[in-house]
Amino acid sequence: MGKQSATRALNDNEAKAVARNLRVSPQKLNLVAALIRGKKVSTALADLEFSRKRIAVDVKKALESAIANAENNHDLDVDDLVVAEAHVGKSLVMKRFHARARGRGARIEKPFSNLTIVVREVAAEA
């Protein structure tokens, strides 16, 4: 009499990983996400390894998680995986105030982001 399990949102040849509340603005995170979209996972990992952006470490961690999900949970071949989607969303925004001259204050916003990475198994080309 329990609740029925939800149908799988992804295809059988896909796996995903979500990194939530990354301390970076969505605009900056999207620059790194655009770097890996559509690439083979081996190339994407190499690009993230040598990227000079600070957030590339967290993006690499999320990509490795998606690869591990594909391999362990969905029995996909790691060598045939491609980054199908890498999309960025807004999360919470911390508001802070910075003291300025003449008793005024300036608002400082510290945004957080969410990152979703979907990897897809593409048939090996003969």
List keywords for this structure.
ribosomal protein; 126 residues; alpha+beta; three-stranded antiparallel beta sheet; Ribosomal Protein L22, Chain A; Ribosomal_uL22_CS; Ribosomal_uL22_sf; ribonucleoprotein; Large ribosomal subunit protein uL22
Oligomer: single chain
The succession of helices and strands, N to C, reads EHHHEE
Q: Quickly name the level 1 CATH class.
A: Alpha Beta
Main beta sheet strand tally, sense and closure? 3 strands, antiparallel
Number of helices: 3
Structure summary, number of beta strands: 3
Number of self-contained structural domains = 1
Offer a quick outline of the entry.
With 126 residues, the chain is α+β, with helices and mostly antiparallel strands.
Overall description:
- This protein is of the alpha+beta class.
- It has one domain (14-121): Alpha-Beta Complex (Ribosomal Protein L22, Chain A).
- The protein has helices at residues 26-36, 41-49, 56-72; strands spanning 14-22, 81-99, 105-121.
- Helix 2 (41-49) packs antiparallel against helix 3 (56-72).
- InterPro entries: Ribosomal_uL22 (IPR001063), Ribosomal_uL22_bac/chlpt-type (IPR005727), Ribosomal_uL22_bac/org-type (IPR047867), Ribosomal_uL22_CS (IPR018260), Ribosomal_uL22_sf (IPR036394).
- GO terms for molecular function: rRNA binding; structural constituent of ribosome.
Write the topology of this structure.
Layout: E1 14-22, H1 26-36, H2 41-49, H3 56-72, E2 81-99, E3 105-121
Antiparallel strand pairs: 1-3, 2-3
Helix pairs in contact: 2-3
